[in-house]
Amino acid sequence: MSITIRQARPEDAAAIYAMIYELAVYEKAPEEVVTTPDEIRETLFGAGSKTEALIGEIAGNIVGYAVFFTSYSTWLGRNGIYMEDLYVSRPIAARARAGHC
């Protein structure tokens, strides 16, 4: 099973939202997700966005995402990356744990 990692695109907003909601259900906090796919499309991919996203695909199907942005460490005096979310769908994660990926 081969996993492809690519830059997220605006048309991925609904899939990203679905995985955000899956994660919230797993964390027993679905009511805390107040965003929408349209809002994700506007804020993640809109002009001036400082946030980036990557998509994981298997056989053309989206199975995960990562959302991150650059940060700055005053103590280290250098730029860094803050990863907000790294999510892999539960069936794929279970297969990986079982050694089937």
UniProtKB/TrEMBL annotation:
<dbReference type="GO" id="GO:0008080">
    <property type="term" value="F:N-acetyltransferase activity"/>
</dbReference>
<keyword id="KW-0808">Transferase</keyword>
<protein>
    <submittedName>
        <fullName>Uncharacterized protein</fullName>
    </submittedName>
</protein>
<dbReference type="InterPro" id="IPR016181">
    <property type="entry name" value="Acyl_CoA_acyltransferase"/>
</dbReference>
<keyword id="KW-0012">Acyltransferase</keyword>
<dbReference type="InterPro" id="IPR051016">
    <property type="entry name" value="Diverse_Substrate_AcTransf"/>
</dbReference>
